[in-house]
């Protein structure tokens, strides 16, 4: 037995003999915070804009017109959508729509001009949007591979803080957190976008939904 094996053996023995008190994790989070709709909207928009996302507000009845306008502005003619997306949202879009399914390989999603999804919950305080893989949000690859993500958020689903947002999620569902377009910085702190996901994020907030 060499010196390394001797040391590791003694460490293992010590860990085996040491008492194992139960770990106590503090859970004194701030919860139950609320804000009036207007203040919650202003805070959420401020955070999204700070992340360099483009924000558009509309009422629910203007969803189709807003989605079509955003896609036209981005030059998107061929888009992907999750199978459960409300197709009324695309009623005024004049391009082609590809419904996503698990048999489509992730590299093929790169051929799309963009993707339109719904969302589950958002956090105003951090400007974070949560997707949980529900039928109107789709699999994670659909929202990560295309270069443009148009995400529809209902103001009623925007919580004030992280604890309030997490309380609305189902723990066993696969959750994707989006805080602005994908970006990173190199060693000289030069911002590079589109490295780990969409280069462009358009958020449509439906203020009466």
TrEMBL record:
<protein>
    <submittedName>
        <fullName>LUD domain-containing protein</fullName>
    </submittedName>
</protein>
<dbReference type="InterPro" id="IPR037171">
    <property type="entry name" value="NagB/RpiA_transferase-like"/>
</dbReference>
<feature type="domain" description="LUD">
    <location>
        <begin position="108"/>
        <end position="205"/>
    </location>
</feature>
<dbReference type="Pfam" id="PF02589">
    <property type="entry name" value="LUD_dom"/>
</dbReference>
<dbReference type="InterPro" id="IPR003741">
    <property type="entry name" value="LUD_dom"/>
</dbReference>
<dbReference type="InterPro" id="IPR024185">
    <property type="entry name" value="FTHF_cligase-like_sf"/>
</dbReference>
């Amino acid at each position: 037995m060499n010196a390394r094996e001797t040391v590791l053996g003694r460490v293992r023995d010590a860990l085996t003999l040491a008492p194992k008190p139960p770990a106590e994790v503090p859970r004194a989070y701030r919860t139950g915070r609320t804000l009036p709709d207007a203040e919650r909207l202003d805070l959420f928009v401020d955070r999204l804009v700070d992340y360099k996302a483009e924000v558009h507000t509309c009422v629910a009845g203007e969803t189709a017109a807003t989605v079509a306008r955003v896609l036209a502005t981005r030059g998107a003619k061929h888009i992907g959508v999750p199978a459960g997306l409300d197709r009324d949202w695309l009623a005024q879009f004049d391009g082609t729509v590809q419904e996503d399914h698990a048999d489509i390989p992730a590299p093929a999603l790169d051929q799309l001009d963009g993707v339109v999804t719904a969302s589950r919950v958002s956090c105003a305080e951090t400007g974070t949007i949560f997707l949980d893989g529900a039928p109107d949000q789709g699999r994670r690859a659909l929202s990560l591979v295309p270069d443009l993500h148009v995400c529809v958020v209902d103001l009623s689903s925007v919580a004030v803080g992280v604890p309030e947002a997490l309380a609305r999620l189902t723990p066993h569902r696969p959750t994707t957190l989006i805080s602005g377009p994908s970006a990173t910085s190199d060693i000289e702190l030069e911002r590079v976008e589109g490295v780990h996901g969409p280069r462009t994020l358009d958020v449509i907030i439906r203020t009466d939904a």
